[in-house]
Task: structure prediction
Amino acid sequence: MLRIHGLKGSSPAYLLSSIFHRAQGPLVVLTADEEKADRLHQELLFFLGPEQSVFLYPGWEVNPFERISPQAEAMGQRWKARHLLLSDPDRLVLVAPLRAVLQRVPPRALHASVAFSLSPNQEFGREELIRRLEGMGYTRSSLVTEAGEFAVRGYLVDLFPPSTPGPVRIEFSGDTVESVRLFDPESQRSSEALEETLILPVKEVLLFREYFEGAAGRLSERLEEDPSHKDSVPQLLERLRQGIPFPGVEFYLPYFYPAPETLFDFLPPRTTLFLEEPSELEDELNRFGGEAEEAWRNALSREEIWPNPGELFLKKEEFQEWSRYYPRVVFQALEVEAEGERLRLQTESNEHLRSDLLASKSEDGILRLLAQRIRSGREKGMGTLLACFSLRSAQRLAEMLEKHDLSVQILQKPFSDWTPADSKEWEATLLLGNLSRG
Result:
């Protein structure tokens, strides 16, 4: 284990982007919560560029053992990430909040069998596509505007799978796919033609009849072992036998798959595991274990039947055992006595500068202070890069800095393509991208 201390601001993402180009396998980064994972994911997209395989692996974001289903978009992202881990893992960065990793998932064999692709001139019936989409959790609607929806209009089937940046329109001629195109969900107009589109599920449990029947059978066996729930189970069993989805069906995942797996089962041995602030991860691990156990007991007190927490989530000991299997790198702000090699890096965040700028009473005062800091850095041999959300905001900032006699350039290319030589003749360089902290 390697412990890296002294990383502040967005420097963990910058360091990860440098490691990515030298890595021989996937990088998996665990954070304590969704907010930290979202921010790190956005920072990695800035440093690596959108064309690289940087994915957020979200959790269900619903409380355990409640009659609420996770969002289709998040479930689709989870399927897509696991599919890539099986098909093309080497150039992949996966950022995940701890709770997302603790959830058990459909087995690898199922991933290989359920995913399918469509391409022009392929023989594939429209009705078969509809059957598969319904079984994979897609919701039928009149217009497709969100991930996980599909619509049927004559010989056209619109759908929004997790594998594409927008919804896809499949045009049929009889039982043959005639064309596959992206389309704009607002105007509903077709655009770019695709040579192929990959279709993945958008629910963690598959809704094909054979899976419902299997879940009903396993629940019946559970009832025979523990008849105390015989009054609350018949309605649930009836829904399962009829193949009727219901809110919270995902929490019965262990009944749909007799041998669910974990995200760790999908990781090749050459994976490197990065742990952001292990003390926070430990606290979250303990907190979630307690919350899941309490939620399960509360459900039992309402005379509801659910899988026990250990069937649905990794236990603390299981998570720790799995994580020790891979090379680990720890990002830790404070240096503490612990096992493993240590590397201390000297970095600074831009929090002090942000505070000083916010304390200024006027726009001119903010710009004057910013210009002073840019010149001061230049005198010390340091360049200044400023991330701007859009071209318009970059142009406006450039104009204002130029009024303070600074030489400023706007580069319309990702940070990953930038080199120090690009900024050699300029006091400030503005790059386009979303970066919340320096």
